[in-house]
Each structure stands twice: as C-alpha cells, then as structure tokens.
C-alpha cells in the first residue's frame, strides 16, 4: 500500500499544501521549525486517525484558523481516500473513508498499516515499563483486532475494580467484597489472555528483531526481548495469577490499587547477555530503537500481508555515516517511506535511487527538487 497524494489545509504551518509522493523513499528536507514533521503528522492521522506526537487536535489547527483538513489518496488493490477534518469551534474530529464518515477508528486501523520511528521512541528503551507495554500492545493490536478488544476490556475491568477498591477503603462492606471478587475473576480471565498473546508475540518477534538489528550493526550482537510477567509458562499463567492476586489482597485493599496483572508487566531488552537499560551505550539504545521499528515493519508485513508505510523523523542526525548508509539501503528495499532531515549535505550518504523523491520545506511551503 502506498500514499500517492496528500493535501493539507490549515495544518500547523501548512496553510495549503498539496504533494505527490514516490512509491519508494520520500526525503523531506528543511531547517528546524519549517514544517517537516507536520507532514508525517498528517500522514499518521490519515492512517490511524490519531496524532503522531500525542498533540491535541486544537494545537494542530493553524493559528487564527478554526479547522484543519487533511486528505490522502492511497493505492493498493483498490484506491482509497482517507480524510481527517477537525473543527475547533466544536472540538469535533470527523474521519472519512471514501467520502463516507466513519465513527469507529478500528475501521481504518489495519487498513493503512504504518510504522513510525520518531524522537519519543527513546522512551521505549530508556523510559518506564508503561512505554514498553505501549510499544508491544500497539504492535500486537495492529495485527490482531481481538487483542485490541481484550485490551480495551481489560482496561475497563481495571477501572471498575479500582473504583471498588476505593469504596472498600472508605467503607469495608461484605457486598463490596463480593463485587470485588467478581471483578477479580474477570481481571484474571482477560489478563491471562493478554499475557498469552504477549508471550507468543515476544517469541515470534525476537526473530524479526534479530534480523533488523543485524542489518544495521557491523559486529556480532544479539538483541533479545524477555517478557517479565506472572509466569513464562503458558500452562501456569492463570494459576500464578490467582496465587499472586491472593497474596496481594491486603496490599490492594490498603493501597486501593490493582497491583497484579499484565498492566504491571515489563519487557526487558538485552544485547547479548547484558540488559540494555543498565549497560547499553547511547548508540546501542538508538540502534535497538531503530531495530524495534524495522522489526515491527517486517512483522506487520508478514502477518497482514500488506506493506506498511514507514515514517522516520530526524533520525539521521544522530547516526554515524556507516549506520545512515545501512539504514538507507534498508529503506530503499522496504517499500514507501517518508524521512525528515535537516542537513542537506548528508543526502549523499543515503544511496538514493532514481525513484526517490526530495521535498524541500520552508515555512510551511513545499517544493519538489529532484
Ligand atoms: N498550530 C500552529 N500554527 C502555526 N504554526 C505552528 C502551529 N504549530 C506549530 N507551528 C509551527 O510549526 C513549526 C514546527 O513544525 P514541525 O515540527 O513540522 O517542524 P520541523 O521542520 O519538523 O522542525 P524540526 O526540524 O525542528 O523538528 C514551528 O515553527 C512551529 O512554530
């Protein structure tokens, strides 16, 4: 699947931008603050209906305007137009697929698969367990609607259970305790399913990670993800979950918190036998983050049988020439990609093919320069 054309209106610095893209590498070049990332942000909206950098919609509307509009034409087996329109006077976002308004973003998710490598990815390897869970959950959700549904259900259960725990803290009551038990059963059932999905994902994904990592680094380093959960053994997840939640009962009541379950799990990243978080160099962190995203790309491609669009925001500035070259070789092979860069002099490092497109961005205005 490729994005052929993009239109932006009142989208941050882009008052009126219309662009045609290459099916391969699209390089978006310009100085700081000129509106490069904004183009990736618009593409991400069209594929997911969500904001790439978790900005609020009202911040995206150009100053002194009251709406933004973005449209994209995708070509796959069929041609599709995706459109996201936001009216800031009503704080209302409307999403259209081929002119038909859609109410559930799940109708779009998976239709236009996308993988993005952006600055905030450093949190995946350097940040909190929640950042790693978010990465893993989003990759599994991209290939499994069932997983996404279980996850949504599980989060609902957590909220309900937390309300009961708070009520119990204020007022210890037998009926409430029975209610808590019922939610605990639901929590264990949904939580066990989540853990099973994650275990099988990590087993599978490690192969993709290894392949992607070895394409970027020159020396023999073996990356690995280990899932830290109630039990590594599929058959004893439920049993261990029950044991752990029983042992935590008094603590949960005292702290009024859900203390056991996959919402507390972590994923540990290793290079050879050393944990990245404790022993990794900055370069190893960056390489791991890039390999995770390339791994995600190949994983989704295999599982969905569709080639995702790849977005990469200002990554080359942090990489040496060797790694930049390696990655751009990779990019020439993977399908359609959109890469932002500030430094025009580094374009030569990138092994551009004839099919690549260079787009120059200056103060929200774009120009194709090849
Ligand atoms: N709602 C808005 N209306 C008008 N301009 C905006 C709005 N939001 C952000 N900007 C401007 O857009 C620019 C940031 O856009 P963007 O992040 O796309 O830049 P960039 O070229 O990727 O920059 P960098 O290389 O620094 O990451 C800034 O100049 C900012 O002031």
Automatic annotation (TrEMBL):
Recite the UniProt keywords alphabetically: ATP-binding, Cytoplasm, DNA damage, DNA repair, DNA replication, DNA-binding, Nucleotide-binding, SOS response
Any single GO BP term = SOS response
| Record domain RecF/RecN/SMC N-terminal: where | 3-363
Indicate whether Nucleotide-binding appears among the record's keywords. Answer: yes
Name a GO CC annotation attached to this entry.
Answer: cytoplasm
Highest taxon above the source species: Bacteria
Q: Which GO terms describe its molecular function?
A: ATP binding; single-stranded DNA binding
What positions does the entry give for ATP binding? 30-37
Q: What does this protein do?
A: The RecF protein is involved in DNA metabolism; it is required for DNA replication and normal SOS inducibility. RecF binds preferentially to single-stranded, linear DNA. It also seems to bind ATP.
Output this protein's name: DNA replication and repair protein RecF
The gene it comes from is recF
